[in-house]
Every structure is written in structure tokens, then in C-alpha cells.
Specification:
This protein is an alpha+beta fold. The protein is globular. A 7-stranded mixed β-sheet has the order 1-2-3-4-5-7-6, sandwiched between helices. The chain is built from 4 helices and 7 strands, in the order βααβββαβαββ.
């Protein structure tokens, strides 16, 4: 059974999962990885969700304030051997609930065109593709999404 905990970026399991995520992104993003890495620092993230299966950390996600109405979803990851079990959707739903509880109106996020699993997840969870925002505005490999809550 999957259990979720809310924590922050000091959580050791979250940090371990993010290290795995960063290794995967370095392979997928290749030469462009340094550009994206600068926006994915995890220090001082106050809102993190970690998923566990029998005390093993099997997924994570985080969010941070983008503006006074919007939270940005960051660092979504499920290790390859755990995918296909609905873990990412559970983490994302819990993050959305947290967004509402904190009084924000929408979520935004960015993923890359080399991340078909992520793109599928966000579409399945009713996120809509939007024009690229902020630092991703002129990045052709970025796909940005939003969801009104």
C-alpha cells in the first residue's frame, strides 16, 4: 500500500530520489541539462510529498510559490522500476490538495519534450498545455502546463 507524507526538502528520502531524478535528466537532456539544473535547486522547499511502499521511498514531488495565486510543481519523480503503479498521480493529487489548502488558485509546471511519461501523467491529470512561462519562455524543448483548482 502506498502512503504519502508531507515534508520539506530536508527529508533524506526526497533528497535521494532527487539525485536519481537528476541523473535521469542529465541523460535525457544531454547538453541542455545545465540550463535546466539551475532552476531545480531543492534547498528551502517547504512543500514536499514523498510516497512510500513498505517503508521504501518510491516517488516524490514538490511545489513552491510562483506568484500570489500560483504554485509551481517541481521535482516530480518515480524510479523506473516503480512506474505504472499510479504513484506519480497520487503524489500530484496530494500536491494539488496542498495548493488548495494554502489558498492558491492554480498550479503550473514545466517538463521536457523528452519526458513522455511526465507529459502523459499531466494530461491524464487534466493539466492543460500553456505558452511557456518565465525562464522557459524561449526554450523549444520545454512544455508548460497549468491546472486551475
Amino acid at each position: 500500500m502506498i502512503t504519502l507524507i508531507r515534508t520539506n526538502s530536508n527529508n533524506n528520502d526526497f533528497q535521494s530520489l532527487v539525485l536519481e531524478l537528476d541523473k535521469d535528466l542529465a541523460i535525457r537532456n544531454g547538453d541542455t541539462n545545465d540550463f535546466f539544473a539551475q532552476f531545480n535547486k531543492i534547498d528551502l522547499i517547504n512543500n514536499v510529498v514523498v510516497a512510500y511502499n513498505n517503508n521504501e521511498a518510491v516517488g516524490c514531488g514538490a511545489m513552491k510559490v510562483f506568484d500570489n495565486q500560483t504554485m509551481e510543481i517541481k521535482r516530480m519523480f518515480v524510479p523506473k522500476h516503480q512506474r505504472g503503479k499510479g504513484i506519480a498521480a497520487l503524489v500530484l493529487q496530494n500536491l494539488e490538495l496542498c495548493v488548495k489548502e494554502l489558498g492558491f488558485k492554480k498550479c503550473i509546471l514545466e517538463t521536457g519534450d523528452k519526458m513522455p511519461e511526465a507529459i502523459g501523467l499531466y494530461k491524464k491529470c487534466h493539466f492543460k498545455v500553456i505558452p511557456n512561462y518565465g525562464q522557459y519562455k524561449n526554450v523549444s524543448s520545454s512544455i508548460c502546463f497549468e491546472k486551475m483548482l
